[in-house]
Amino acid sequence: MRFLSVRLIVSLIVGITLVTLAFSYNEVHAQKEGLRRDLERRAEVLAESMAGNVEPYLQKGSRRELQRIVERFGNREHLDGVAIYDKQGALVAITSGLAPLLNGQPSVVAEAISQDHGAGQFTRLDKASVVHVYALPLHSGETVVGSMAIVHDASYINTQSARIWRETFVRVLVQVFLIALITLLIVRWSIVGPIAKAAQWMRALRMGRGGVTSAPPDSDLLRPLTREMETIARSLTAARSAAEKEAQLRDAGESLWTAERLSAHMRSRLGEHRIFVVSNREPYSHTRKGKSLEVVVPPSGLVTALEPILCACDGTWIAHGSGDADQETVDQHDHLRAPPEDPRYTLRRVWLSKEEEEGYYFGFANEGLWPLCHIAHARPIFRASDWNHYRAVNQKFADAVLEEMEGTERPLLLAQDYHFALLPRLIKLKRPDVRVAIFWHIPWPNAEMFSICPYQRELVEGLLGADLVGFHIQQHCNNFLETVDRTLESRIDWEHFSVTRDEHRTAVKPFPISVAFEETPQHQPESAYSDRVTLLHDLGVSATFLGVGVDRVDYTKGILERFLAIERLLEKYPTYQEKFTFIQIGAPSRTHIKRYHDLLGEVEAEADRINWRFQRGTWRPIALLKWHHTHQEIQRYYRVADLCLVTSLHDGMNLVAKEFLAARFDEQGVLILSQFTGAARELRDALIVNPYNIEQTAEAIRFALEMPAEERQARMQKMRRTIKENNVYRWAANLIVELSEVNLTPGYMQGNNEERRQAAAVGLTADPSQADR
Ligand code: G6P
Fold first, then answer.
1. Phi-psi map region of 269: left, alpha, beta (phi>0 left; psi -120 to 50 alpha)
2. CA 439 to ligand 1 centroid distance, Å
3. Which candidate, 432, 291, 364, 436, places its Cα nearest to that of 742?
4. What 3-state class would DSSP assign to 272?
5. What is the crossing angle of helices 63-73 and 2-60, to 10°?
6. For the residues 545-559, what does the mean pLDDT come to?
7. Res. 46: pLDDT tops 60
8. Which amino acids bring their CB within 6 angstroms of ligand 1?
9. 567 or 172: whose pLDDT is higher?
10. What is the DSSP string of 325-361?
11. Which pLDDT belongs to residue 178?
12. Separation of 330 CA from ligand 1 center, angstroms?
């Protein structure tokens, strides 16, 4: 709209200026002509009146008298002087001031003598001065005896024209400014205002508020559109309710899970319950790019899974505000509405100091717990100071969660991941009526391994504050239960997989996370062939076969082992030299930690070494793309690759494997998958490898490249079916349904009869009579 007004104003200014200038040009021209005519007339009159005085003296040849006459007339306004010539054109008398100016005889003098009538001309004497010369024949009786030239200075005509131009310019300027201003005001009042109101109305309609119930804004200008807007509103509302109904039907029919079905399911299931999510990474962060703000969505499946739930019941997501412009975009309660393009839930940002982030996130979570839980032979580091920060930050987040829950009855809380092991207990101690689940996105090692953590007791106790603890696979649940068994006094029910401690029961269950799955691509890709040609061209590589790997550069991902397997393939099967290229997309991650920083260098050095050994011409074995790619950008690589390599040394689930399958609408491509990923339990049709076994992985790559198309398709179809059915929406639904069905146990109400009574009143299983004993 602003662009339109600017265009309108600019066109107006140009138009008005051109028209005014055309008129002014005419005016100046006419004025100039008038002044010239006026001068010519004055010259003629002067010449006529002088002729009578001059002629007798010319006949007599009285030069002195003639000189006296020309001197007398020489000082009139604008008159440069008078000159008198005899019949032959020789000068007889001339005003003394004129003599130095006049260079020879003006041509009109001869013309006047030969034609016997007056003649005038404008001419230049030098560069600066313009003069008008008028010549009149002089007579003796009927005979021409000479001529008189009257010379006027005509420069004042140009000076006056220039002044008129100047005045016109200023007038045009003032006019243009006033007209533009008035037009702008008119446009604002009568066009922009109504259009903005209409846009607001349409936005409300799009977001499901207002619409047909409120009429579109009325204005003369928009009247033709208003009727159409009403029709669109009606159709949209009808389509929405149809989609909702369909989602409900599908829900009842237990078919595929979609974002819409998840929303509908949650609305009917949760009723009054409100949902709260707490995670370290926020779903949207804001960063400053020059003068504008940019919204960044982290490359995490969590946002896809949890947003439909939060949107369905206007929930609250509490997370660390880590963007450099995050503080600028929240209100006084550190809130903002999300998603940005269609706000339906609240994001509450929690601020951490540099020291807190260093100790809690980089230190305890990522140098302690991360290597502790992943068996990747990186030694965990446990610093007492990091632990203190971890505890304090868990408390800080718990306080924020409790603050957000104030006044909400029986809320549900979904805590995410190893950053918040202590938070479930902290919440329960204050609000026993909250149903708390924590989902642990990384593996849980065996009890022996976990026991090296000096704080294992507090961590396990913290987690057992939850009513539900979720892992990706049963194996991690078992490991957790064994750890509990070894660490704390509790009762473990191995049949139903739960722990009871101090009268509080925690269920421990697997919920394998997944990706969103679409039957058809959102954007129709080019043909696989032309896609591959452009991609290789962009990379500046020529190759016949392509492999792809997508990872955060993390030591658990087995990137170096993968490179060794590629080297081994080329060594063992030289026919793949100059043919097979592996594209490694490696997003730098947690580089503030030395181990990660060093790894980035090691990965680069290894790729260089292998490339140096084999590369020829425009072919090279490894193309390392060491920067963050968006989900959309990665799709392009998944779609053209002959194989995808996932060689994690240990991974809770690994969503890259599932993303690759979801991207293969053509049902081609082979997945090579580490046996140490959670995904390997579900995706049995992948080529399962031990990433430490370089020989085996190299063979798997060759096997994948040589696999017959029918087998490739059959394997891909089966795996795609698996993730279609078990997509991320099912994961979220299972988690929430399980949590909402949890029977709250009295554990955290011990010793507080009043709380226990209240708990009984809100449906907890605590028995107030027991509490009195
Ligand atoms: C793992 C963790 C997530 C984490 C992600 C990215 O998948 O389980 O909690 O968000 O890595 O790591 P970052 O530290 O950058 O959030």
1. alpha
2. 13
3. 436
4. coil
5. 160
6. 97
7. yes
8. 281, 300, 417, 441-442, 589-590
9. 567
10. TTGGGS-TTSEEEESTTS--EEEEEE---HHHIIIII
11. 87
12. 24
